[in-house]
Amino acid sequence: MIANLHMHSRYSDGSLWPEALAAAAAASPQGLELAALTDHDDLHGSGEFAAACAALGLACLPACEIDVSVPEIGYRSELLAYFPQGRYAATGALLAAVLEARTARISGLAARAAALFGRPELGFEGLAARKVQGRDPKPDPELFSFSMVDLFRYLQAEGAVEASFGYKDFLRAYVDTGKIAGSKMAKPSLESIVAAVSAD
Fold first, then answer.
1. Which ranges constitute the DSSP H helices of the chain?
2. Contact 145, 40 (CB under 8 A)
3. Are 116 and 180 in contact (CB under 8 A)?
4. Could you read off the pLDDT of 46-79 as tens digits, one per residue?
5. Contact partners, residue 27, CB within 8 Å, separation at least 6
6. What pTM did the predictor assign?
7. Are 114 and 120 in contact (CB under 8 A)?
8. Cα distance between residue 50 and residue 3, in whole Å
9. CA neighbours within 13 Å on the CB side: how many for 112?
10. SS3 of residue 127 by DSSP
């Protein structure tokens, strides 16, 4: 079976809405037979993705990529979780707090960027409006997993960050130097993730 089990939509740091991503997967030259939408810490696009895949005759698995921290071994990265039975209530409940923390963090970083660039009109509201662009009705920003990538794209679109900058340039120039910085977001423990995913 030919599958792609790691894709992101605009609900996290991808560039396509779930149904457009499903259409691209179904039309792929590789002849995909199975796909999974694995947005960062977010399952809100799963229903849209599943419906679009079903309409296109493409099998899909509900899934997500969960940020995790294992301090005992110094591990801070992600785990992929798949839900072949189509249930993910416990994982969704765990991720609700993560999405809230992501939103609070990016809101603070947007405010710091507005102060740094002397652009008081910049802020989370503009960033969120850009994130849901092209969607009608507009989804609630609480459904999205905001990241530093979103902040970069927003600041670049608003002309605050140089158009020639790539994402790594942005990180080096503004984040690594502390010009736009905030506290690190707490990630769920490995134990809490395993418990939630196992319950589902």
1. 18-26, 46-56, 89-117, 124-131, 148-157, 167-170, 190-199
2. yes
3. yes
4. 999 999 999 999 999 999 999 998 888 877 789 9
5. none
6. 0.90
7. yes
8. 15
9. 17
10. helix
Average pLDDT over the chain reads 93
Count Cα atoms within 13 angstroms, Cβ side, for 157.
15
Q: Which helix (H) or strand (E) holds 45?
A: none
How far apart CA 114 and CA 160 sit, in angstroms, is 9
User: Between β-strands 34-37 and 59-70, what pairing exists: parallel, antiparallel or unpaired?
Assistant: parallel
Band of pLDDT at residue 115, cut at 50, 70 and 90: very high
CA distance 35 to 101: 28
CA distance 183 to 109: 10
Q: Which helix (H) or strand (E) holds 82?
A: strand 75-82
Q: At a CB cut-off of 8 Å and minimum separation 6, what does 157 contact?
A: 130
Q: Write down the pLDDT at residue 138.
A: 85
